[in-house]
Fold:
Amino acid sequence: MKNAAPASPVGLASNDEAALLDLLENLKQHHGFVPREVSDEVSRLVEVKLERLRRIQSQLDTTIRRDVQQHVTRWRDEEGNLIMILHAIQNQHGYVPREVAMELSRELGVKLARIYEVITFYHYFKLQPPGAHSVTVCNGTACYLKGSGELLNELRSQLGVAEGQTTPDRQIHLDTVRCIGCCGMAPALVVDGKTCGHVKSSDIAGHLAGLRAAKEVAA
Ligand code: FES
Structure:
C-alpha cells in the first residue's frame, strides 16, 4: 500500500533539513516525482538557508581577516616574522587552519606554498585540530634505549593512528618529542601534560582507559 499523500511543505522551516528530505522522499514514493509547486517551495527554503550560511561565512571571514591582520601588524618588521605569526596562530587555534594560512598568505604577500613549507618543516606546527587529549612519547636517547619504541608501537596499535595524528573521534592525539628532561624516569610519556615515568607497554591500556573515562565523566 502506498503512503498517504504528504502534507504541503508550507510551514516547514528552512533549517529543518531532515523534514524536507523526508517530504521529498515521500512525494517521490507517492507520485513518482516531486510536484512543481513543492519543488519551488523547497528551492525557496534552501535559498533562505544558503543566504543564512553565506552571512555566517562572511562573519567568519571578517574575524579571520581581523585576527591575521593583528598578527601581521605585530610582527611585520621583525626578522623571521612568518614563524612568529604561525606560532601566534597555532596558539590561538591549536593548529593552523587552512583558511587562516590562505589569509596570511594574502596579508603577508608570501606564497601559500612557502607557508606550508614552514609548517611542515617544523614538527611543532599542526594542520589538524588537536584532540581533546594528548599522549606524547619521549623519543630522546635515554627513553629510546629504555624501550620508547615499544611504547610507541603499542600506542599506534591501540589507537589506530600514527604519531602526529588524532583518533577519528578527535579524542586522543598521539605524538613524539625529543627529551622532556626527565631522563632518569625513562622511558617516559606525557599524558595530558602529566609526565609518567618508567612506563611499560602493559601500562598503555590503563593510561588510555583513564583518558576515555575522563571523556565519559565530562560528557
Ligand atoms: S630522553 Fe626521554 S626524558 Fe630525556
In short: The mean pLDDT is 86. DSSP finds eight helices and five strands in the chain.
